[in-house]
Amino acid sequence: MGSCHAFRTLHPKGLLYTKPPPGDYCEQNLINNVLVRLKQSLSIALIHFYPLAGRFATKIEQNPRSHFVDCNNSPGAKVIHAAVDISVPDIDSPTYVLLVVQSFFDHEGAINYDGHTRPLLSIQVTELVNGVFIGCSINHAIAEAPPSAISSTHCPKYFKAKEIII
């Protein structure tokens, strides 16, 4: 962890979609449907990737200190719904990324240590005037963990599992 690179969060990733034309059957309750399906899919995926629903924890009373992902004392992964008065062409057309796009990601500006108090995985669904932006943020330390730390043979040693409720 000697470089600045080790302390940043993983680059956030996002998907930009246009809404169906007004009056289209799909347009009715679009955001609600997206949120319901996203939460259902996420709850199924987190059964297999449950550390993403945890928080970093440190046991100070041990020497040396013990660092682990605690899934038992965590509120889980975070799903956020937001709305802005911006259209898809406002985001898609410029030759540079607008500063407002940073607000479409929950972990913007976070560092790895924030995983003690902030979710390790956060998904933000931002409703635009004529579209939807889905931003996914994941803590760099958990995403870049060595495979040996999260392999199925070592998981019980590093992670405590629980049923994930979103």
Summarize the structure.
With about 170 residues, the chain is an alpha/beta fold. The protein has helices spanning about 30-50, 90, 140-145, 145-150, 155-160; strands at about 15-20, 55-60, 65-70, 80-85, 120-125, 130-140, 160.
How would you describe what is shown here?
One of its GO terms (molecular function) is transferase activity. This protein has 5 helices and 7 strands, in the order βαβββαββαααβ. The strands form 2 sheets. Strands 1-6-5-4 form a 4-stranded mixed sheet. It has a 3-stranded mixed sheet with strand order 2-3-7. With 166 residues, the protein is α/β, with parallel strands linked by helices. It has a single domain (4-160), classed as Chloramphenicol acetyltransferase-like domain (Chloramphenicol Acetyltransferase), CATH 3.30.559. Residues 1-7 and 150-166 have low confidence and may be disordered. Helices cover 22% and strands 23% of the residues.
Q: How are the secondary structure elements laid out?
A:
Elements (H helix, E strand, L loop, with lengths): L12 E6 L11 H19 L6 E5 L6 E5 L7 E6 L4 H5 L28 E7 L3 E8 L1 H4 L3 H4 L4 H4 E2 L6
Parallel strand pairs: 3-7, 4-5
Antiparallel strand pairs: 1-6, 2-3, 5-6
